[in-house]
Amino acid sequence: MVLQAIKYSRGQLQILDQLKLPHSEEYDHIYSSTDAWHAIKEMRTRGAPAIAIVAALALAVELVNMKLSPIAEEVKVFILEKLDYLVTSRPTAVNLADAARKLKSTAEEAANKEGSDGEDVREAYVAAAQKMLVDDVSDNENIGRHGADWIVKNTEAGKKGQVSMLTHCNTGSLATAGYGTALGVIRSLHSSGALKHAFCSETRPYNQGSRLTAFELVHDQIPATLITDSMAAALLQLKGSSENIAGIVVGADRVAANGDTANKIGTYSLAILAKHHGVKFLVAAPRTTIDLETKSGKEIVIEERPGKEVTLIKGPRHDGVTLDLGVVETVSIAANGIAVWNPAFDVTPAELIDGIITEVGVVEKDSDGVFHLDGLFKADGVRDAPSTVGGI
Ligand code: MRU
Fold first, then answer.
1. Does residue 255's CB lie within 6 angstroms of at least one atom of ligand 1?
2. Residue nearest atom 8 in ligand 1 by C-alpha distance
3. Using alpha carbons only, how large is the chain's radius of gyration in Å?
4. What three-state secondary structure class fits 350?
5. Nearest alpha carbon to residue 259 among 361, 356, 169, 185
6. What burial class does residue 85 get, using C-beta atoms within 10 Å of its C-beta: 0-12 exposed, 13-18 middle, 19+ buried?
7. Fold assignment, 156-304+340-384
8. Nearest residue to 165 via CA among 235, 260, 261
9. Looking at domain 6-136, which CATH architecture does it have?
10. Distances in Å between the alpha carbon of 136 and those of 54, 60, 128, 321, 349?
11. Which stretches does DSSP call E strand in the chain?
12. How do residues 320-355 score in pLDDT, each as one tens digit?
């Protein structure tokens, strides 16, 4: 069965509550943009593409179920205000702001059309939001294909036949409309028989790796092993040994114009480790995650989350032998009174990144070590672009 984090049909939206995973699969109904704002803020839904799609669809559901004004301008203003509100839920991932910008111009264009009414504006909005859901899945499948091809062609282990990869956080079906970005690359390697083994890091403090990525890997029966974040260096020392670790592949919340990439906290340290051990470090993201308006990583706002996400851990009771799903407990794992710093993301400098895998190909740096990401947006025919842009 395919994992589905977002269930949508016209007028109805449900999200898989990711705070309850991996032990319990429960869906929450989302009826409005306010419901979506809270679901995003509380991390019941998360991952840059998923956040954008849930926000877009929640407003579509609200518009379909509400008593609609017949006046196009009024419906447009309602949509614009709700989109501005949704964007305030989490600051770092650019996909939500990008989706809001595109949906706003859809609503504006529809409202400006001669003779349009409220229903026309709503229908234009709903169609555009639904298209985002469909496009994200096909974009992810293409990211998976391009990334897997690149890894097989550009790594020693790949040329010999099979690779092992390390990934961080959760970038799979749970973080997107389906298939995933970095985890999509691992899925693609697996389905073509090129994956030897996947490693996923726990991803403290929110444990997206141990709770969500591990859940997806087990679900898809991909050979995989969980490590804590502090074990990554030791794992990479195995490169060239029987494990054939070819590289690290991660997702992104915002890629700046120069290639600096904001992603889950801990990504930057993995990039440094990759450099030291001479393994590839790849970022996998749809073009909606690339923000040419942000010139470098210095401009990216990093979300800081409550300290209790570091000092407390929540989960079902385990007595050492049996898991009791009926009793969910919160356990303190830090000294009372300690100050806590909890940035949700960090920025990996472009110099540490070997390639950015998108739905239209893998971008490498030119001979001066510079990414030219604007080339990804130039022509419509870009979907047919060669799988390697620039670089080698
Ligand atoms: O705080 P989260 O769980 O929303 O962070 C998610 C990540 O950092 C992902 O790597 C990123 O959003 C890409 S998901 C395809």
1. no
2. 264
3. 21
4. helix
5. 356
6. middle
7. Rossmann fold (3.40.50)
8. 235
9. Up-down Bundle (1.20)
10. 12, 17, 12, 41, 26
11. 6-9, 12-16, 27-29, 163-167, 195-201, 224-227, 245-250, 254-256, 261-264, 280-284, 290-291, 312-318, 323-332, 345-348, 355-358, 361-363, 388-389
12. 999 999 999 999 999 999 999 999 999 999 999 999
The dihedral formed by the CA atoms of 129, 130, 131 and 137, expressed in degrees to the nearest 10: 110
252-302 pLDDT tens trace: 999 999 999 999 999 999 999 999 999 999 999 999 999 999 999 999 999
Catalytic: which of 253, 260, 291, 346? Answer: 253
Q: What residues does CATH 3.40.50.10470 cover in the chain? A: 156-304+340-384
CB-based contact 45:39 (threshold 8 Å)? yes
Pairing of strands 12-16, 355-358: unpaired
Identify the CA nearest to 248 among candidates 214, 283, 217: 283
Dihedral sign of CA atoms 239, 242, 247, 251 in order: negative
Atom of ligand 1 nearest to the CA of 345: 8
Q: What's the gap in Å between 206 CA and the centre of ligand 1?
A: 11
Comparing C-alpha atoms, which of 64, 38, 65 is closest to residue 51?
38
Average pLDDT along the chain: 94
Distance 116 CA to ligand 1 centre (A): 39
Distance from chain centroid for Cα 193: 25
Binding site membership of 90 for ligand 1 (Cβ less than 6 Å): no
Cα–Cα separations (whole angstroms), residue 226 to 18, 168, 181? 19, 10, 19
Q: What mean pLDDT do residues 48-58 have?
A: 97
CA-to-CA distance for 302 and 335, rounded, in angstroms? 26
Which amino acid does the sequence have at 134? V
State pLDDT tens for residues 179-234. Answer: 999 999 999 999 999 999 999 999 999 999 999 999 999 999 999 999 999 999 99
For the whole model, what pTM was predicted?
0.94
Where along the chain do the CATH 1.20.120.420 domains lie? 6-136
| Burial environment of residue 379 by CB neighbours within 10 A (0 to 12, 13 to 18, 19 or more) | exposed
Alpha carbon of 175 to ligand 1 centroid (Å): 7
28 included as an active-site residue: no
